[in-house]
Design goal:
By secondary structure, the protein is of the alpha/beta class. The chain has helices at residues 6-38, 49-52, 80-88, 183-192, 204-209, 276-284, 308-318, 340-352, and strands at 57-58, 61-62, 115-121, 124-129, 132-136, 170-172, 197-200, 217-220, 224-228, 231-236, 255-259, 264-267, 289-293, 322-326, 364-366.
Length: 381
């Protein structure tokens, strides 16, 4: 075997450098092309009569309802200390061992008369209610970001491929933040599903830019209802904000009431605690189950994200039956330890006598017969 000449190593080094440079330039070109598209398209509220006439819209933006319980009418902007903690205080915020998943059987579960909830991680879930199927805030991308190369990365794989989901009757979006409205997932759903997207006012602009046809876009204001066969979905209030770039609150945010002929489920979306839950419960409840946001809380974000204790209180005021926590586990978006949200939730739920189901990502829960708690998260963080 002949020995390599001195020039061979240099040529290989140059080749590796050029390959890395080409890869970097390709990624940069993709980012420059795709990121502006992922921003979506902000609506022209002054020209859109539905937005202009919304009770939630004034002075060019949407606003939260007045609240004596929330700190302010809008989100608190993180201060320098919050940014420092986000960047440097990272201990315990990600699991050290793989998160257990439940892979669905090859055959699609048959439709039933009851209520079943399959949680896929973060806030993505499938609600089966009296034969109808509703997909909530689906995100199947590796990152919740406008870029495929930067931003919070998944802490566990998706438990099922998007194309393997059963046919759904509606896709519900709570607001336009990247961890709830994902462009790549929307484009995949265009090919794999035929269901409409029901969204808060203004989000239709994002969907249109991404190629969603008009007949598959349903935009609602708070307290507006859409009927799809025997399924009805109603957009209700939340205390949050919106925005995918530097502009904020040009699209609305909200929570969802999902109702069959006799059964009901509630989904909070993202929200700070506010008195609206009692009003929603009085008007639309009681509910067989509620999917409630529990993660990414902080004192600086009290207006926009509930603590686990807030989540239990909101669930009780809604008249919820089984509490299924969401908005935790999948992305590192908060300043708290990874498993803290569920531990605090369980302690408060036990103190208040609230039934809770905490599924693994991909696990299907029958609301009438929820599984026993087995603390699968213990020892992972």
């Amino acid at each position: 075997m002949s020995e390599a000449t001195p020039g061979t190593g240099r040529r290989r080094g140059r080749l590796l450098t050029l390959t890395a440079l080409a890869t970097g330039l390709g990624a940069a070109a993709w980012t420059l092309r795709e990121v502006p598209v992922a921003f979506g398209r902000d609506p022209d509220g002054e020209r859109d009569g539905r937005i202009r006439n919304s009770p939630q819209y004034a002075d060019g933006t949407f606003h939260n309802a007045p609240s004596d319980l929330a700190r302010s009418s809008g989100p608190t902007r993180p201060d320098r200390d919050t940014f420092r903690r986000m960047l440097f205080d990272r201990a315990g915020r990600t699991p050290v061992r793989p998160i257990p998943l439940v892979r669905p059987a090859a055959a699609v579960e048959p439709k039933t008369a009851g209520v079943q909830i399959t949680w896929y991680g973060h806030a993505s879930a499938l609600v089966e209610i009296e034969g109808a199927r509703v997909l909530l805030d689906p995100i199947w991308s590796e990152r919740c970001s406008p870029s495929a190369h930067l931003g919070p990365k998944r802490l566990h794989p998706v438990p099922v491929e998007l194309e393997d989901l059963p046919a759904v009757d509606a896709v519900l979006i709570s607001h336009d933040h990247y961890d709830h409205l994902d462009m790549a997932t929307v484009k995949r759903l265009l090919r794999s599903q035929s269901a409409p997207f029901a969204v808060p006012l203004g989000i239709g602009g994002h969907l249109r830019r991404w190629g969603v046809p008009e007949h598959r876009i349903i935009e609602l204001d708070w307290d507006e209802t859409c009927t799809l066969g025997e399924l009805t979905v109603t957009l209700t209030a939340a205390h949050h904000f919106s925005g995918r770039s530097l502009t904020r609150n040009t699209t609305l945010w909200g929570s969802w009431v999902i109702a069959g002929p006799t059964r009901k489920v509630f989904y909070t979306g993202d929200s700070g605690y506010f008195e609206g839950y009692a009003a929603i419960g009085a008007q639309h409840g009681p509910f067989d189950a509620s999917l409630v946001q529990i993660g990414a809380y902080d004192e600086a974000w009290a207006d926009i994200h509930m603590t686990p204790e807030d989540a239990v209180l909101a669930h009780r005021e809604l008249g919820g039956g089984l509490l299924v926590p969401v908005h935790w586990c999948t992305f590192n978006l908060g300043l708290h330890p990874w498993a803290e949200p569920v531990e605090r939730l369980l302690a408060e739920a036990k103190a208040q006598g609230v039934p809770v189901a905490i599924p693994r990502p991909g696990e299907r829960v029958d609301v009438a017969e929820p599984p026993e708690l087995d603390a699968w998260w213990v020892g992972l963080a």
